[in-house]
Write a structure and sequence with these properties.
By secondary structure, this protein is of the alpha/beta class. It has twelve helices and 18 strands. Helix content is 30%, strand content 23%.
Length: 411
């Protein structure tokens, strides 16, 4: 299959060309010269081809909470949003605390996933040996503040141990707790790469910026930001209640500006959605009782929300591509050839209509939860086709189920 006359954009290039896909890979890339192609082809005029987006932080709730989402609906929502790889978090039921539970979760993902996937391991009390022996995961997730699921760890000695044995540690840690975790990590000699999930505060961006100035640490510390923390403040929480309630809570305008500054100067490495669906009933009950239910969906709205900002700011789309895929490949040491449009790379691609102007409407989204915090928001850009493993799996609102989704390989 050929995609002809399309604008190819990845972290390295922005040019018009033609791409040939064969056996799940990008086989050939040629420049704009007219081609006599008799093969099946897609006319890409006026469109953009990006490497498929990577969302390294989602909660697809499977197993245990499949009334909110499951691996099929979650990954379907992902491909409708141009996301071709996700990493699922361990606060499922049972929590992913043992290798046996991880294997069971792998079976679920293998059976249901519509896009490529990786599964996080969870840090729990007494599972250090399991962490030492875990295989092929994006990292160990360590929860240091309250959120959905009771996975919070308070014992600092356990943090130390996890830093020592966890090959890569991703933190749910907010503000001062994050600063404290970093102190302990440094005391231990920064024994593992450390990643901050869902940055929401200026203090977090400032701290990571300082750490990255140290040559010995720059390749060991990373952070992600979510669209909701970049686009909303506590005012939305006050106005919309449970539908804008998540952890970390929405912060101030000053924090939002600091996050964008972090995006601009690359202190923030990539975007993630923290897609954390709950049912409408659960959110309505939360509004009634005042008992918070943390988390909002987002995997499908990542692309249009961030792309719209990029267009408004007139920023370089190569950097957009880098932050939507290539940087996650690098930071998580993904072994597969992903995150770039290059010959020999996996054909995980997304075709975008950059001229589309429209609105986000939950009724057009595919998460099981059926609502969005961004209802009615104006957006630029639309996912026209999503290609996973060389096959079109989503095209103009239609899904084509093909069992080409694979587990990601980490080195
Ligand atoms: C997440 C969830 O619901 O699983 N909730 C949230 O508010 N972000 C957990 C988390 O990422 O902290
Ligand atoms: Zn979290
Ligand atoms: Zn999360
Ligand atoms: Zn426009």
């Amino acid at each position: 299959m050929w995609i002809k006359n399309i604008r190819l954009i990845d972290a390295y290039t922005d040019r018009i060309g033609n791409v040939e896909i064969q056996d799940g890979k990008i086989k050939t890339i040629t420049d704009q010269k007219p081609l006599s192609i008799t093969d099946r082809k897609i006319d890409g005029r006026g469109k953009i081809l990006f490497p498929g987006f990577i969302d390294p932080h989602v909660h697809f709730r499977d197993p245990g909470f499949t009334h909110k989402e499951d691996f099929f609906t979650g990954t379907r929502s992902a491909i409708a949003g141009g996301v071709t790889t996700i990493f699922d978090m361990p606060n499922t039921k049972p929590a992913t605390f043992t290798r046996e539970i991880l294997e069971e979760k792998r079976l679920i993902a293998r059976a249901k996933a519509q896009c490529h996937w990786g599964l996080y391991f969870g840090a729990g009390i007494g599972n250090i040996q399991e962490i030492e022996n875990m295989k092929n995961v994006p990292g160990v997730k360590l929860y240091l503040n309250t959120t959905t699921g009771n996975l919070k760890m308070d014992d600092k000695n356990q943090w130390r141990e996890i830093f020592r044995v966890g090959k890569r540690v991703s933190l749910h840690a907010e503000g001062d707790t994050f600063a404290h975790a970093v102190e302990i990590w440094l005391e231990e000699g920064a024994p593992c790469p450390l990643h901050l999930c869902h940055a929401s505060l200026k203090s977090e961006v400032d701290l990571v910026r300082e750490l990255k100035k140290d040559r010995a640490l720059v390749s060991k510390i990373s952070m992600e930001a979510c669209p909701h923390h970049l686009l909303m403040t506590h005012k939305e929480l006050e106005a919309y209640g449970a539908y804008c309630c998540m952890k970390p809570v929405l912060a101030t305008q000053e924090d939002v500006e600091a996050l964008w500054k972090g995006v601009e100067d690359e202190t923030i490495d990539f975007f993630a959605t923290d897609h954390a669906p709950h049912t409408k009933t659960e959110k309505e009950n939360s509004n009634q009782t005042g008992i918070p239910v943390y988390g909002i969906p987002g995997v499908e709205t990542l692309f249009p929300l961030i792309f719209t900002q990029w267009i408004e700011r007139g920023w370089d789309l190569k950097k957009f591509a880098a932050m939507m895929s290539q940087k996650a490949v690098k930071i998580f040491s993904i072994k597969d050839k992903k995150g770039a449009i290059k010959e020999g790379f996996d054909a995980d691609l997304v075709i975008i209509d950059p001229e589309y102007h429209g609105k986000i409407e939950a009724k057009n989204l595919h998460s099981k939860c059926g609502w969005s915090s961004y209802e009615g928001w104006d957006i630029v850009g639309r996912v026209e086709k999503t290609i996973v493993g060389g096959a079109v799996v989503f095209e103009n609102e239609n899904f084509f189920e093909r069992l080409l989704a694979r587990e990601i390989n980490f080195s």
